[in-house]
Design brief:
The protein has about 280 residues and is α/β, with parallel strands linked by helices. It has one domain: Rossmann fold (3-Layer(aba) Sandwich). About 40% of the residues lie in helices and about 25% in strands. The strands form 3 sheets. It has a 6-stranded mixed β-sheet, with helices on both faces. A hairpin with a 2-residue loop joins strand 1 and strand 2. The longest helix has 19 residues. It binds adenosine-5'-triphosphate and magnesium ion (MG).
């Protein structure tokens, strides 16, 4: 059973500190949902776990089954079983979907092992059908010209093929129509097993109708400020975040809220100086 352990994680981009002490443990078989207002560090957490080169960890640890994830290259993290369905998947003209997934799968095998082309094509076609995607998809370039919803389905297609042990799905529900949400939700739900730990980043409770979560966390100011069950998410869905901000005495939930506040102060003073 995979265990992803995040301890006191601090990370920055350029000189801006975004994550300010994230603690989270995800075990195989568990589904965790992270929600939180815009700009509170959710996607940054996903990028840091996966090893995006722009983000620098300044403090804390991430381990997968006891192995130091921060020491691993991005591809080593993927081979170790980590997977990220991105909030905004990139378009890669020139690389077909099937070549992309095939290469990723081949790179997980031992050097002298070859991916069976027959098995690959069968599994790929099966996944395309299950996700109710267009049959010409394998021949199209990766996400190139895809609609928002098609890109999201394509992330789940990759997940189905790569069979990760820890999967982070960043707003997989955004931009999906009701039917697509059902298809994506059911496909992810079908993959649930003790061998898979899931982290769903979402703004809305509706995705949990298809993928029930065991734990719900709220992120503000670059850290998890509250954890609970789906009741927590239901309350936020109904009432928003104000009650929680009051309860936690948080004025500005954003990562760089304090910087913004100081900029406004500076601007006001400068204006006063100019008027003198
Ligand atoms: N590469 C970057 N360069 C500059 N600022 C960044 C970068 N990545 C993140 N940030 C900033 O860090 C903060 C947190 O961003 P992040 O994308 O993690 O938020 P989020 O919680 O995922 O928000 P949303 O719900 O809108 O997706 C934002 O203020 C964002 O502008
Ligand atoms: Mg985000």
């Amino acid at each position: 059973m995979a265990i992803l352990k995040i301890t006191d994680l601090h990370a920055k981009v350029d000189d801006k500190i975004i994550l300010k002490g994230v603690n989270l443990i995800i075990k195989g078989g568990e589904t965790h949902a992270i929600m939180g207002p815009n700009g509170t560090g959710k996607s940054t957490l996903a990028s840091v776990i996966m090893g995006h080169p722009r983000y620098h960890v300044t403090q804390g640890q991430i381990t997968l089954d006891g192995q130091d994830v921060l020491e691993m290259s991005v591809d080593a993290r993927a081979r170790a079983g980590l997977f990220l369905a991105m909030q905004s998947p990139s378009e890669v003209p020139g690389v077909t979907n099937s070549d992309f997934v095939k290469t990723a799968m081949q790179s997980r095998l031992e050097k002298d092992e070859n991916l069976s082309l027959f098995k690959f094509i069968r599994a790929f076609d099966h996944a395309v059908t299950e996700l109710q995607m267009q049959p010409d998809l394998p021949h199209r370039y990766l996400n190139d010209g895809f609609s928002g919803g098609e890109k999201k389905r394509n992330e789940i297609l990759q997940m189905k093929m790569l069979k990760p042990t820890i999967a982070i799905l960043d707003e997989i529900d955004s931009g999906l129509d009701v039917d697509a949400l059902k298809i994506v939700g059911e496909n992810v739900s079908k993959m649930k097993s003790n061998a898979l730990g899931l982290l769903l980043i979402t703004h809305y409770q509706r995705i949990l109708d298809y993928i029930p979560a065991d734990h719900v966390h709220v992120m503000m100011q670059g850290r998890i400020v509250k954890s609970g069950t789906t009741d927590l998410m239901k309350r936020i869905d109904a009432e928003g975040y104000d009650w929680l901000k009051t309860e936690l005495n948080i004025e500005d939930e954003r990562v760089n809220g304090e910087d913004d506040a100081s900029r406004i102060m500076l601007g006001t003073c400068a204006t006063k100086e100019a008027l003198k």
